[in-house]
Amino acid sequence: MTQSQGAESGEAQQQPPEDRGLEGFKLVGWGLICTLAWLVVLLITGALVAAIDEADEAASETGLLVFVIGQGAAGILGWFILPKLILRRRNQSRLISWRRPGGSDIAWAIGGLLAIYAVLYAYTAIITAAGLESLEPQSTIDDDRLFIHTSVVVALGILVIVCAPIYEEAFARGFVLGGLRPHWGMIPAFVVSAAVFSALHADLGSLIPFAIAGVVLGIVYIRTESLTAASIAHFGFNVIGFSATLVQQLG
């Protein structure tokens, strides 16, 4: 534990329990505002795409590009920029921070990535054995239209591989887990952050495995005291997933 973390922990312990709980609820409220900002950008994006498609049905490439870029802008604003600003006002900006990866970060990232795939494999095996294929995790980028135009594929790849591991880790691990831990304790913070991470993917079949994956990434974040290793693991997972989807769509 670093000196700044020790000071933060000491301050949290000196606060009355009801004050710590209230601060946690305030953070949740700020998180809802961040999510609202994300939703507003998505709605604006949807309106722009509809206007483009209505003006020229042949401009599907432009509409799809706006859709993908809008998704990225929504995530960066709602789940990275705003959380970073909120934590800065609370003197907790270090919770959303990265560093040059060291050997320990790489080791934790690889271990986290392997653990996530082990969870997905076990979950899929159980669901298949139970005859509940409808609950298998589904890709959020399996729309055939996204893979017609090269420009859209490139933009989608940047969104999935580069942007998502940054803003999803910043929000779910840094803002939610790191922000709630001093106020609500380790287990509640893990539960909420894992639920948030699972909900970000908006897929019924992904709820359970992605919640567990969120716990794995949370452990990586807590153990390494930085978003670096968790983001690398997330990056690796998305690279593999995007590559598999790309091969399937273009094969």
Describe the oligomeric state of these chains in a short phrase.
single chain
Question: What is the H-and-E element order?
Answer: HHHHHHHH
Question: What share of the residues lie within helices?
Answer: over 70%
- How far apart lie the N and C ends? 49 Å
Number of helical segments with 4 or more residues: 8
Shape: globular
Rg for CA atoms:
19 Å
Which strand-content bin applies to the residues?
Answer: under 5%
Summarize the structure.
The termini are far apart. The protein is mainly α and 251 residues long. The protein is built from eight helices and no strands.
Question: How would you sum up this structure, described in words?
Answer:
The protein has 8 helices and no strands. The N terminus is likely disordered.
Please supply descriptive tags for the structure shown above.
251 residues; 8 helices
Write the layout of secondary structure elements.
Layout lengths: L2 H12 L2 H39 L4 H30 L13 H27 L20 H35 L1 H15 L6 H18 L3 H23 L1
Helix pairs in contact: 2-3, 2-5, 3-5, 4-7, 4-8, 5-6, 5-7, 5-8, 6-7, 7-8
